[in-house]
Design brief:
Helix content is about 30%, strand content about 20%. By secondary structure, it is of the alpha/beta class. It folds into 2 domains: about 5-365, 3-Layer(aba) Sandwich (Rossmann fold), CATH 3.40.50.12780; about 370-460, ANL, C-terminal domain (GMP Synthetase, Chain A, domain 3, 2-Layer Sandwich), CATH 3.30.300.30. The strands form 4 sheets. It has a 12-stranded mixed sheet, with helices on both faces. A 4-stranded mixed sheet has the order 19-18-17-20, covered by helices on one side. A two-stranded antiparallel ribbon has the order 1-2. α4 crosses α5 and α9 (about 210-220) packs across α10 (about 230-240). Bound molecules: zinc ion. Zinc ion binds near residues 292, 294 and 356.
Amino acid sequence: MNNELAQAVYDRSPVWMQNLLLSAYGFSLYRARYGGSYRQHLARLLRTERYSRSELAELQAVELRRLLTHAARHVPWYARLFAEHGISPDGIDPDNLGRALPILEKDTVRTRTGLLIADNVAGGALHTINTSGTTGSPLVIRATADALRRNYAFFERFLRTAGVRSRDRSVTFAGRMLLPAGRLEPPYWRSNWAMNTLLCSSYHLSDSTAEAYIRCIARFRPRYIDAYPSAAYTLALYLTERPELPRIRPKAIVTSSETLLEHQRALIEEAFGCPVYDQYGSAELAACITQCEHGSYHVNPEYGIVEIVREDGRPAAPGEAGELICTGFLNDAMPMIRYRIGDSAIASDRSCGCGRAWPVVESLLGRVDDVIVTPDGRRIGRLDPLFKGLTGIKEAQIVQVAPNRLEVNLVRDNAYDPSVGARLVEALSLRVGRDMQIELRFLERIPRTAAGKFRSVVSRLPQPARHGVEAVEQRLYS
Ligand SMILES: [Zn+2]
């Protein structure tokens, strides 16, 4: 919903009226997303998808030159930066970009928003993307209508890789509030007839409600399901435990917004009998990384340039982890050039058997802030292998509450016995060191963020200044 009044009217309406309101809203969104230049953008992307490495390099060089020239002329922040450092856009290409320009920090985007908006775009015509954070101040991103349409063209191309299209019958687990958080009775879903979509609330999905969701989704017979990994995983667990429930057989499951863990992917694919295609995007319109039929994560090169850099600022070597530094070509209203987006990944130099000449990212590691820092200074990100082979644990979250203290939140099932917990503490201790105290906490459900997202590792330690702003929680495609 667009504003508080619309939300208030929606909240007070009966379900049938909410379906109607959501569908009307869906139609207006549909026009905004798929009108105008959308078709041309999609046609172009379907052509460039099979470009050779050298054709893509040429395309990126042209796009980068155009973006930098625009920024130098029309974006006050960059005009000043280029002038102060005597930088000319003509001398910068995709290969020397990392050496030529400094990194744009999230804090700068938050505090200098006005200076980052181009002076030659009509303010009234811009769209505002608000990103919500778990704490701290959100970012405000301004985007042209054309940038959003191009963005949806990229999403459509990704869906086609998965063998589906955006207007196919689909189920979406939405981050937006479709119904009051305290609602105990179904339906936990609403209809968007404009998009042929059943919108399901992520906030109400739990053990006690999963059966109702499954029966409804099975009746709906979606061609694909678009969900947070944690939501798809909850359904998959329940389907696996309850073979008497109707099966759900979509052609694909597409996930985004959270780090997809390997054990989640395996169980989701088994329970739904179809592949999972994961996707990484951002509200800042700075990067698009999508999985192909071969399971590789590919940087979409027409979207922008993604560097993976080490802490010392140098490019990460293949197999090495680093932070994503993103330059997006889409949004002239608020260009993100060498933007530190707050997520990290493992670099790769391999090519993929799918035939696309796109760069490969070995794996996405998630938010930079969500790591455990051991008392001896080691940073440990992905801890999900710890839970491998442990029975009786449905969901787990590791929270660092102090430099020497972790809390492990667990949701148990009937197969849990105390030896499982002891093994978990032991395995965790091995990785984080004996100086770290570990406490197990048993919960009914692990709380989600304000945007309904699940985080497997949470750090409550004060973050260094450059990470002073909470990472983006906006789910762009919901
Ligand atoms: Zn591939």
